[in-house]
Write a structure and sequence with these properties.
Luciferase, domain 3; alpha/beta; Rossmann fold; 21 helices; 5-stranded mixed beta sheet
């Protein structure tokens, strides 16, 4: 596919939106409980003033603009403004600590930063003396900034005023800069989550992103009438594609919630038709639903349980327009009126036409739960290096344990070692300032090594087993796929995170993080007093609860001859939640296994001994940035394992 040179960059697409759909809503933001909407014509004027303000401050072609904060219209406009001048936006994870930001800002040679609020300003000021190339910081929210007196620290509003003055003196400057852009220019640099070391800067061109986006719009029949919620980190490639790139190409409206805590409520008000989420969001939603049902009346719980059984029996078949008996269809219709409809409305999914989950594997039970309610949730498999899309599920051809078929214009192959490899128009140009990593990841003829182990089933659907480096074998030869086991455990609302071990061992063991909301709700109902997460996690009844979850998982594993031997035999409940600030998780909540192995080695050794307690002393980072030591003696328990049994039904 060749792009139209008149529409081969986002600034050109934005100007075209003013010509074709000037009065359609482009973006919304909820502030102080009120939704404010900007049309495409208004967005063009905002971006124009912002770009000219950056130009007045010395921003030139090739400069980098760091974008830091929650999903806010002004930050998205900052991306378009930088691109209009031939610059490159570099979004950072807003919950990164200052030291993490320091690495990216220095590595990306960032001169300018556009941030949301005082919190982000403080982080940059903390590291400014170690970031010699960072010259200008612009902030959106002025709250708390009144008494700041720092050179080259300026408000968004003053930047806009400078831009309006610059434009009046240079009326043709911006259009001339936009015209210089072309499809092969760098559109954005997105940094990977860094599960195995320092994050890498993925360079994506306009051509990479736009061809991929055009194919995605055609694949799912997305139009300017869609409604999308922008709530995921702007530094994540998923948000960049779904909330920015697709919006500019299709012309649909993106809504920014008031805060992370109000997303569910704001979704109810907006009613998105198009939704994208990593599995952890669906897991959290399911946990919230189940916790609320525990507080419901006896009659409501019984009704919920009954109709959920009906949905599991026939809901997916109805969604996929398959043949279903008349009685089941009538029961499902009643369930939709009494349970499914109100439940979807509570979750903000009443109008969802298409929902995607990606980022890592989702538990089949969680996936089927949402589809059985009539929500068209599909899986896609992708990477930052692919501009997201590698494989995707088609409507009415959805399986819970696969990632679908190759996306249009994408070739996928499986190496002799079982690694998934692909080639596509979306393949990244290179890793920024890292030619060695580029050569290790991408071949000269465009094939990319994903590092994921997988295979195609008989229907041509891709199945991802785990990371190649993480897949192992027990001493008896049984396949050990940790992520597969962990996803099964996280289906239970009481379990927030799990880390499993077993490679070159006689059995599988697990670390468990309880879900504080779900287990705390249980404790409140049972009048169980506790003063901290650590105390609740160590409670005997909590251990019994988690052991029951593990044994239910083992019962399911026993039905599969390939993995029946990888049932979980020993476990402990960690005294603290795995935390990105402690380096144990990435900012997208992926487990950094190497760090967990290093930090909790003494507990792993205890799991593979005959002791019933494990001792741990480790450093933790508190919410205010202070560090301290946590010392704990953790109970280790055994879980029942079952003989292999054939599946029935």
């Amino acid at each position: 596919m060749k792009l139209d040179p008149k529409l081969d960059t986002f600034p050109k697409l934005l100007l075209n939106r003013k010509q074709t759909t000037p009065d359609r809503p482009a973006i919304r933001e909820k502030d102080f409980g009120i939704w404010q909407t900007w049309t495409w014509s208004q967005v063009v004027e905002e971006v124009r003033s912002l770009a000219c303000g950056l130009a007045a401050s010395g921003f030139r072609r090739g400069d980098k603009l760091a974008i830091i904060g929650d999903n806010r219209p002004r930050l998205y406009w900052g991306m378009a403004a930088a691109q209009s001048l031939g610059g490159i936006p570099v979004p950072l994870y807003q919950d990164s600590v200052a030291q993490e930001m320091e690495y990216v800002i220095n590595h990306a040679d960032v001169r300018f930063a556009l941030v949301e609020d005082q919190e982000q300003v403080d982080k940059l000021l903390e590291i400014s003396n170690r970031c010699p190339k960072l010259e200008f910081i612009f902030y959106d929210d002025p709250r708390g900034m009144r008494h700041y007196s720092v050179d080259h620290l300026e408000s968004y509003d003053s930047l806009i005023q400078e831009g309006q003055k610059f434009e009046s003196e240079n009326p043709t400057y911006l259009e001339a800069e936009i015209d210089k852009g072309n499809a092969r220019d760098i559109s954005v640099i997105l940094y990977t989550s860094g599960t195995t070391g320092y994050p890498k800067g993925v360079i994506l061109t306009y051509e990479n992103i736009l061809i991929t986006v055009i194919n995605s719009l055609d694949f799912d029949k997305l139009t300017e009438k869609e409604e999308c919620m922008a709530y995921l980190p702007m530094a994540w490639v998923g948000d960049h594609i779904f909330s920015y790139a697709q919006s500019y190409v299709a012309g649909f409206c993106v809504s920014c919630p008031e805060s992370g805590a109000t997303v569910m409520h704001d979704m109810q008000e907006i009613g998105p038709t198009y939704f994208f989420s990593p599995p952890r969001i669906f897991e959290n939603i399911l946990t919230t639903v189940l916790v609320r049902m525990e507080d419901a009346s006896w009659f409501k719980r019984k009704m919920f349980d009954y109709f959920i059984r009906v949905s599991k029996r026939c809901g997916i078949q109805i969604l996929q327009k398959e043949s279903v008996g008349l009685i089941d269809r009538l029961l499902y219709l009643i369930g939709d009126i009494l349970v499914f409809g109100p439940l979807k409305n509570t979750m903000g999914f009443s109008k969802v036409r298409i929902a995607y989950t990606a980022g890592e594997a989702i538990g089949p039970e969680i996936f089927e739960f949402f589809r059985s309610l009539g929500i068209n949730v599909k899986q896609l498999y992708g990477q930052t290096e692919a501009s997201v899309y590698i494989t995707v599920q088609k409507d009415n051809d959805v399986k819970p344990d696969t990632c679908g078929i190759p996306f249009p214009d994408v070739e996928v192959r499986i190496s002799e070692a079982g690694e998934v490899q692909y080639k596509s128009p979306g393949v990244f140009q290179s890793y920024y300032k890292n030619p060695e990593a580029t050569l290790e990841t991408r071949t000269g003829d465009g094939w990319v090594f994903t590092g994921d182990a997988g295979y195609f089933d008989d229907a041509g659907h891709l199945k991802i087993i785990d990371r190649v480096k993480d897949v192992g074998r027990l001493n008896d030869g049984t396949l050990f796929a940790p992520k597969f086991l962990e996803n099964k455990l996280k289906f239970f609302p009481q379990i927030r995170e799990a880390v499993t071990f077993g490679d070159n061992q006689d059995h599988v063991s697990a670390f468990i993080n309880i879900d504080l909301e779900a287990v705390g709700n249980w404790a409140e109902r049972k009048n169980v007093a506790y003063a901290s997460y650590q105390e609740l996690a160590a409670h005997p009844e909590v251990y019994e609860m988690i052991r029951n979850c593990i044994e239910q998982t083992n019962t399911d594993l026993a039905k599969d001859s390939e993995i029946a031997g990888s049932q979980i035999k020993r476990f402990l409940i960690l005294h603290k939640e795995l935390d990105a600030d402690d380096g144990e998780l990435t900012r997208t909540r992926k487990v950094r296994r190497r760090i967990v192995l290093d930090r909790y080695g003494s507990l792993i050794d205890a799991l593979y001994s005959d002791v019933n307690r494990g001792h741990i002393e480790n450093e933790v980072t508190f919410e205010d940035g202070r560090k301290g030591m946590m010392i704990a003696d953790l109970e280790i328990q055994n879980a029942q394992v079952f003989d292999h049994m054939k599946k029935t039904g």
